[in-house]
Amino acid sequence: MGADNVDVFQRMVFSLPPLKVQIPALVALSLVYSFGMHLAFTVFTPIRLSIPLVLVAGSLVFLVPFLLAGELFHQVLPRYPRSWSYFLALFNQFVLFVYGLVLSGADTTGNAWSIVWLAFITVHVNNVLVLLISTGIEYYKRILAVSSAQTAVLVAVFYLFVGGALGIETYRHVFSLASVGIAAVFLVLILLAVEYLIKSNTDVSAFTLTSGLLRNDRESLDLGFEAEPDVQTLAIDNGDRLTLAAPWIHPGPLGGFGGGQLSGTVIEALNAEGTGFFLHVPCTHKEDLADPEDAEKVLEAVADPERTGRASTLVHRDYGEIEFFGRRFDGKRIVFLHAEHIDDYDTGVFMRDREESDVLLVDLHKHDIQEGPEKEVQYGTAEADRLKRYFDDFLGTLDDAPLHDYDAGFDVHLGDRDLLAMVEVVDGERTLLMGIDTNGVTADIRDLEAEYREEFDHVLLFSTDTHASIHDLANMTRSNVDAMRRAVAAATDDVAPATIGLTSRTTRPLQLLKNDYNGLVFSVNILIRLTIISLFLFYFVLIVWMF
């Protein structure tokens, strides 16, 4: 995502251990924590507990309430995955154990009482916070109820063993019980305030956005401005047809929101009745779709260009800051650009005086998938003007390239990550184009690119800059190299005399985020920090309140 500064979403951990790991872990850890508490109390207090009592008390404290929570959250909350529910239970089980260790160092009965109840409040508040964020603020009443059920079991176990025998004044019992509910309600009020602030500024629900990202839901954003962007179509025919769609739309912003799944949707549709792939033009998140359904309008604009059987060899120029690769045919040109340190470009940087029906400009976007650049080139800056001069100079060079017979072969592999391999042969020069439906590329694909440089005169690797699934991208470290090898082999075998053509046409009116995207990102960034600070202050107040 780079320059949009919302990498926090991509860096979240989406792959949780399976239930066959989590449930045995919950049981085993209850024993570990029970004997850990027994050891701590033996060392730091005069209390001595028998092993049978440790097992009984430990199961009632560290096992039963958390098994209950793990199943209850899944059953009661709408579409809440069981693996999420049990993982939250595992986390809170650990939190309770940490408080138990702190309890073993309490010097007075009053302090011990406060630590116990602060532990209950923390578990309760953790549940409310996580469930609200991952489910949605609209379910706050149900969330308060199910979280209270687990806390009630913990409180009941506490009173069963020691709560009523400590000689604590009645008012402190009432105060502690009331504090559990007050803390949860106060947390909800904080989060409702956050929700109000972001909705008043961007008309987007922060909790709908967050829970949708976590669930990978498809949602429309009630934002944006009407536009009719160009959709360029590059077609290659060697007896079979390859259609490469290059809409002047950015595949974002995130997950299923807006056009995050645009590249995958286009690739799937193009391959339903033929063969096709998605090309990423240099643009920014301001060109994100607001409504994922508008992908249909993009597909409607894919056209059938006139084609020619003559093309130039691939021309390459490296200007230091940026490098270009290009080929001309029948008065048309296709250009690939690469700058390792740049993530995105404003649409006007390169194409402000160029016709989309004459020049197809593709951003290779082949940075490291986990450590990509964060720099964005803004229109009207000195850097943008300098890059534009390089681009114009390159086009001038490209115009002088002679034409020759054009041969090509291609193959598209559909899977978890769709792949394209295309081999072009012009005047004996062999060029390999490898594409992958990701946001950046993994190290193993880069290694494959380097390997093929021994076999081909030019190797161009690109990604679609998709934001389709941040669940996958956040944890993606390897690609399907074997599938890419098979695709390259198939494309090489498929090489035959071919024709190539380019055209462009605009879509029907649709909504692009434009400057609303900046408002959304600025609000999210500010409120993430505001929420974190508020929660720290809230916890500090809780400690002061209980002691």
Automatic annotation (TrEMBL):
RNA-binding in keyword set: no
Residue ranges constituting the DUF2070 domain according to the UniProt record: 9-544
Signal peptide: none
Any Pfam family hit: DUF2070
Keywords, sorted A to Z: Membrane, Transmembrane, Transmembrane helix
Highest rank taxon of the organism: Archaea
TM regions (residue ranges): 21-44, 50-73, 85-106, 112-132, 144-168, 174-198, 520-546
InterPro entries: DUF2070_membrane (IPR019204)
Name under which the protein is recorded: Putative membrane protein
